[in-house]
Amino acid sequence: MSWHVLGAGSLGLLWAGRLAASGLPTSLLLRNQASLDSFLQAGTIAITRQQQSTAVALSAQTAATDEPIRRLILACKAYDAETAIASIAQRLVDGADVLLLQNGLGSQAAVAAQIPQARCILLSSTEGAFRDGSFSVNFAGAGQNWLGDPHNPAPPDWLNELQQAGIPHQWTTSIDQRLWRKLAVNCAINPLCVLHACRNGGLLEHLQEVHGLCLELVTLLEQCAGSSSAAGLFAEVEQIIRATASNQCSMLQDVQRGQRTEIRYLLGHACTQAHQRGLPVPQLDALQQRLRAQLLVLGLPDD
Ligand code: NAP
Asked: How much distance in Å is there from the Cα of 12 to the middle of ligand 1?
């Protein structure tokens, strides 16, 4: 059974490359014919890990191909997910599995609503990769991938293929809670790093502000994901800030590259969910307003 991977970006290349390198039939779904033509010229993708580069051969096609899809990995940004899934929705067979790699929350439900014939499996990842050329990815950070289906606790039968491909993974029956916790940590760190234009460690000078945000996030987590997801949030955030003091968070990296952020699916989702529940979150609201204003000043979309 073939894997289709939509999106030849950082994670798409990393996942497709590992699956194909282990001998599993894998096909990249590219945006258009021009992108397919440039892939065909290269014929392989490159994965670099610890300065060692490996070329991996695999097939590629555009969304317009009519080959049925049984297993899809959706590897685009959250703001592209709805459009991307629409481009191949009719190719997904009944009972297809779709693995959603998007960070944050909100895009997964929007995607699932478009493909009722498929089972959507959500992912939370601590792996890190960045594109260092077209069809070339640098696998910079080892980590873990948690996969789960909020509607069905049974694991899919293909986890052994991830094992075969050397993709670290763990099936979880609480993927929503994991994604909410990760979202909350992101809300406490990333927007402030953009606003203060600082690395994570720079927030040590703003711990009171971080603490105030965590108090609101804890109340939100308790309502949206249960009290166990909320426990010890500020302590974890402070520990992450110290442990990753010299890192630039993903949102700051996006801003510095002049790229759109995923704010809508992170801080934006937190604020929307709080408002829908009638939960006052004045500090999160103010943070969102400041961040959106800053994004507009920088000429970037504010959602
Ligand atoms: P990325 O490098 O920007 O890759 C996204 C890819 O999707 C791009 O190649 C983009 O093509 C492609 N794409 C978008 N719409 C498409 C469409 N309709 N058809 C075909 N291709 C399409 O993003 P990423 O870093 O892999 O991130 C993907 C998700 O994983 C994000 O939600 C991110 O937050 C999350 N994540 C990433 C990492 C990481 O280390 N990179 C770690 C954890 C989580 P164009 O370039 O042509 O737009």
From this structure: 7
CATH code at position 119 = 3.40.50.720
Q: Has residue 71 been placed in a domain?
A: yes
**9-34 pLDDT tens trace:** 999 999 999 999 999 999 999 999 99
In this structure, the answer to whether residues 164 and 279 fall within a common structural domain is no
Residue 60, C-beta contacts closer than 8 angstroms, at least 6 positions apart: 8, 27, 28, 29, 30, 36, 39, 40
Mind listing the pLDDT tens digit for each residue in 202-228? 999 999 999 999 999 999 999 999 999
For ligand 1, atom 40, which residue shows the shortest CA distance?
A: 128
CATH code of the domain covering residue 213: 1.10.1040.10
Give nearest CA residue, ligand 1 atom 3: 9
This prediction has a pTM of 0.97
Q: Which of 119, 148, 173 is the last residue of a domain?
A: 173
Distance 77 CA to ligand 1 centre (A): 4
Choose, from 18, 91, 182, 264, the residue flagged as catalytic: 182
